[in-house]
Design goal:
Elements lengths: L5 H11 L9 H18 L6 H8 L3 H5 L5 H13 L10 H15 L3 H10 L6 H29 L8 H19 L5 H18 L22
Helix pairs in contact: 2-3, 2-5, 2-7, 5-8, 6-10, 8-9
């Protein structure tokens, strides 16, 4: 197996990514993304190389480096494009918004997702570049959507102001990642409801100045608002 060294990658990146600003063929982007995901599922991230992706796609390494800085950016871009962006639904309730988000995500998830994520999981702890791109391209957009959803719930009066919003919105992606990797299951509406009513809402109300720490809120229905 031929590996791409930092030296060779740097040389080609400098030369090829600044080759006169030629228009890049978008169809090649799709082929390279597909090749990256296919190989990621087959051999994992650690064994994946730019050489291997280029060979699988029938392209040159220069073609890849004109588009992406390296395999980390290519792989995360491929996963991001596969899932597609979708608007944050406003159903009128916190639970309804979260369930709608899960339903949208389920439309783009497939059985190979868990295999690809497992391929990434082994590399995330020791690959700083991958972690940075993974957070930027895959985690941050979902956290932003969740922050917007919780902000609307506060504005509607469903929940009190969330003091530790960064922690709260990070719980759902963490549990989704665990469910995908360990169980091989995509999140569904039942999972979202269980997490929301059993974990998220008790934490939100436990950390509210308006609610006693010993008070545990009853299950929240999509049309029900709380008084606090």
């Amino acid at each position: 197996m031929v590996t791409d060294t930092p030296h060779s990658r740097s040389e080609e990146s400098i030369v090829d990514r600044h080759s006169g600003g030629r228009h890049l063929d978008a169809s090649r982007d799709d082929a390279l993304r597909a090749a990256a995901l296919e190989l990621l599922g087959e051999i994992g991230y650690d064994r994946l190389t730019v050489d291997a992706i280029a060979t699988y796609a029938g392209a040159g390494k220069a073609t890849i480096y004109r588009r992406w800085s390296g395999k980390a950016e290519l792989v995360c871009d491929a996963l991001s494009c596969q899932k597609h962006a979708f608007p944050v639904a406003d159903t009128g309730s916190l639970l309804g918004d979260l369930e709608s988000m899960a339903q949208q995500a389920m439309k783009t998830d497939n059985k190979s997702d868990s295999q690809m994520m497992i391929g990434l999981a082994s590399a995330l702890p020791h690959d700083a570049e991958l972690r940075e791109v993974f957070r930027e391209r895959l985690v941050a957009p979902h956290v932003a959507m969740l922050t917007e959803i919780f902000g609307r719930a506060v504005a509607r009066g469903e929940i009190p102001v969330v003091k530790n919003i960064d922690l709260i919105v990070s719980i759902i992606p963490a549990l989704v990642f665990h469910r995908l990797l360990i169980l091989g299951l995509a999140p569904d509406t039942e999972f979202v409801r269980t997490v929301t009513e059993g974990i998220i809402l008790p934490l939100v109300f436990a950390n509210s100045k308006e609610t006693l720490l010993t008070e545990v809120p009853p299950p929240l229905t999509p049309t029900r608002k709380r008084k606090f």
